[in-house]
User: Fold this.
Amino acid sequence: MKKHIFYLAVCLFAMLISAGCTGVRNDIPPADDSLYIGPDDVPLGDGDPDIDSGPVYRGVVTDITADGGVITFKLESPPGADYGYSSILVQSGADTAADFPLEDIALGDHLEVSFIDRNDGLLPLILSAAKLPGVADSVYNGVVVSYANHLLELEGLTGGDEIIFSISERTRLLIDANEIVPGARLNIYHAGGLTRSDPPMGKALEVRAYREG
Assistant:
């Protein structure tokens, strides 16, 4: 019996030695935080393209019509943005989700809508709608000055208004990163708030190639 206990004790000691006797797994690689920008990274917001299983269009309201409780909106994409077409007509429905009354939407509002096409000859149906900060406060078109250490420095296409945008793991890059080189023209959708530094800094939510015209 004593030999059996001694044998078990030796085996247990050997197991502890092989594990480092610390209780810590040494085979877990360290976390890769190379893309970390900060604790207050801004998510993409309410208009996550995957949330409603429909394509997303972001634009300025240029026309509104209402008929029998159905509201039709014409949206025009902001300058420089490319959603496949420069404008779109969409209609509200009984199940359209929005955290504000659709009747309150006014000409000039900046909206993001998730929608689904319909095969019955009707206009695309809005699945969800969200109000965004004004285009002047959330869309920036510029020429790349530099891109390093997850910081993208741009100069406005009209010159003068230089801004640095942080690029985090939450940023949607809709352009090959290898194409983000000095001189490239980009369209940035950003969180809206900029620092008071010189140049100001902001958080890029989407980066895409600038659409000419």
